[in-house]
């Protein structure tokens, strides 16, 4: 069994389901951003409880992907080092904070320490659009009063191609961002579903190129039985995913500086 648990923050909805500027003046009480150790292993960025945000071995562009919950082709510009230099982050709020508050703090600390200046553009491009199906959403249990440590989207693959996702207090914005990792294009959330939800989603991924139904993999035949992601979204959650041209927000970095030692 392969399990992957990820926690991340909600993000305000804008034209394309993302927000490209800090939405408030909240800041972490204490925050350190330092170059990663050359021999450090692993990496990632995540909230740690309802006060802290931590990151290890992450580029500035990587932090921006998480802070603004977008795909790689939605962040443009910037000097070459934003894709190569790795940084550790350890930030703590003064008091227990909501998901939205921690999210604002993360955006602000990146802007402050890296002296970021950027603008956003709207580009018509191929994307996927997530909407509510004609019969309405289903099996989405609202999760009241979330805190910064509540959001979990657990992905388990018990058999090749067969996935089960279990959400605990996940917003639809966060869910679409995580889901977009399976696709080569952004997913635009147009469900207008606010708040966070508990739900489960089981589906079968597409057969990778070069593999065939029934082919042996680790001694067992490849099985593609089960709903596709499109079918699972519609039948299990009452959501519809369609491929179409759509206006997508692009964040363009105009200026960035390497942070001082702190």
**pLDDT < 50 runs, ≥5 residues:** 1-19
Q: What sequence of helices (H) and strands (E) makes up the elements?
A: EEEEHEEHEEEEHEEEEHE
Strand order of the largest sheet: 1-9-10-12-8
**Beta-strand content estimate:** 35-45%
Shape: globular
Summarize the amount of helix as a percent range: 10-25%
Fold and architecture overview:
The protein is of the alpha+beta class. The longest helix has 15 residues. The N terminus is likely disordered. Helix 1 packs antiparallel against helix 2. The strands form 4 sheets. A 5-stranded antiparallel β-sheet has the order 1-9-10-12-8. Strands 2-6-4-3 form a 4-stranded antiparallel β-sheet, covered by helices on one side. The protein has 2 domains: 114 residues, no CATH class; 123 residues, no CATH class. The chain is globular, with a radius of gyration of 19 Å. Helix content is 16%, strand content 39%. The chain is built from 4 helices and 15 strands.
List the helices and strands and how they pair.
Layout: E1 2-6, E2 30-35, E3 44-48, E4 52-58, H1 60-68, E5 75-77, E6 87-92, H2 99-113, E7 117-132, E8 141-142, E9 152-159, E10 162-171, H3 172-180, E11 187-189, E12 196-204, E13 216-217, E14 220-221, H4 229-237, E15 239-255
Parallel strand pairs: 5-15, 7-11
Antiparallel strand pairs: 1-9, 2-6, 3-4, 4-6, 7-15, 8-12, 9-10, 10-12, 13-14
Helix pairs in contact: 1-2
